Amino acid sequence: MAFCQVQWSSKVLGKALGLNVILPECGEGPYPVFYLLHGLSDDHTIWHRRTRIEWYVRNLPLIVVMPDGFRGFYTNHENGPAFATYMAEELPAFVERNFPARTGRASRCIGGLSMGGYGSLRLALGYPEVYCSANSHSGALAFGHDPLQPDTSMSREWMLVTGPSPTGSDHDLFALAEARVKENNAPAVRIDCGTEDFLLDHNRRFTAHLNEIGLAHEYAEYPGAHTWDFWDLHIQEALAFHAGNLGIAQA
Question: What is the CATH number of the domain that holds 25?
Fold first, then answer.
């Protein structure tokens, strides 16, 4: 397989960006694409540096794209950049123009951890025509749903992203999930979280909501915390989940 470090310029964000890409050497292209998102404090290099993602996909006819999401939560900011537009529209067009990638919903999936876990569901539920499946590891899934308290520096930062009252908006996964059920166009969803993770309550509340509204999904809790040991281990189940939805198998 080949590993590519890409520098490109986003018109949507008005900024030069880094992008890491794993290209398969098995099967025949064009290939489906897995967009793999990082968490709040990291960047587009982290999955490749901290996990064995390249080894895990060695026998899969699958392109893995690892973009930089900064601290943007992969959503269009109320007072700032349009990260969702960049991710769901501009980035797939760039990838499909420059790499041997298949086009269309059935050939795209997305996943991530923590902020990226929220982001993967924000994008897949917000753009159901773009992705066939989405997974979240240890996701901040109540971000954009719970009210913000304006008395901390972090809350003040998040208000620039979602505004002071995000509940029910396009930032709210609970509301986006309801819209997908109403329109009967939900992607396949898989969620996992560690039983010692500080975001476990987010995951339990969101999956309880999915059960209540009848949105089909997979949910698993495993021993572990908000750590790379957990994500390196369980990205393997996510890859199997996406491979099944993409209709591909190990070579």
Answer: 3.40.50.1820
What value does the mean pLDDT take over residues 114-118?
98
**Which structural domain range is residue 211 located in?**
2-246
Domains: count for the chain: 1
CA atoms of 27 and 119, how far apart (whole Å):
30
Residue 182 placed within a domain:
yes
Instruction: Please give the mean pLDDT across all residues of the chain.
Output: 96
Contact 124, 187 (CB under 8 A): yes
Cα 208 off chain centre by: 20
* Other Cβ atoms within 10 Å of 26 Cβ, number: 14
CB 217 within 8 A of CB 186: no
Q: 115-126 and 173-183 helices cross at what angle (nearest 10)?
A: 30
158 in a structural domain: yes
Asked if the structure places residue 251 within a domain, the reply is no
Tokens at 28, concatenated: 């025949």
Q: Which of 70, 7, 13, 75 lies closest to 38, judged by CA? A: 70
- Whole-angstrom Cα distance, residue 112 to residue 116? 4
* Closest to 69 in 3D by CA, of 91, 50, 94: 91
Q: Does some domain include residue 110?
A: yes
Comparing 130-139, 145-154, 167-176, 195-204, the range with the smallest average pLDDT is 145-154
Q: For residues 126 and 186, give the distance between their C-alpha atoms in angstroms, rounded to a whole number.
A: 9
Identify the pLDDT of residue 153.
75
pLDDT at residue 147 tops 90: no
pLDDT value of residue 86: 98
